[in-house]
Amino acid sequence: MPGTPFYNWFGLNQTLFFAINGIHSVYLDQLMLLGSRLGDFWNLPWIIGALILMLAVRTVASGTDHIRWLPERKTILRLLLTLLAGYVLAAILVTLLKLWLHMPRPSAAITLATVHVLGEPESIYSFPSGHAAFVMLLTVVFWPHCRNLPRALLILFAVWVGVSRINIGAHFPADVIAGYLCGAFSGWIATRVLPPHPDGRLWRC
Question: Where in the chain are the domains?
Fold first, then answer.
């Protein structure tokens, strides 16, 4: 297995990979594949579309009692710009690290044991995980606009996507952790440049 002790965790990285990658069943496989698909970077247009729709509804129906649950236009627009800025930064950071470090996927890095790979083949580079970066970016960007239940769902979603990437054989745990850090850093930078409205929560629960 390639890399330094910092990446290998003195064998723990591979041990954790086999522990997670070795758990399979018909329903679990489908759940893991779904989590991986939902955490894909290319799902951004759906999220952007939802925010634009909210912005349009807020603009057209401004002043009515039926949309009091929606945040102000300024809040939605600020969130939209923050997400776009963080996305661009995360995409650049993940791409540069993949091209610079050339870390192979588990199926290519491990030759003496069986790696369970589900889904379509992906790019040859593994570190860091783009899926983990994307889901953590969403968590950091949306976090200031949420309370209680939505925050718990964000955490659950981030864990689900990260575990799914290991379970389907696409990444080592170290790749996922690095992806989380890239997404968190990108989201943090974006929220510092465009801070959220002080009272602009998207969900009140």
Answer: 23-41+78-193
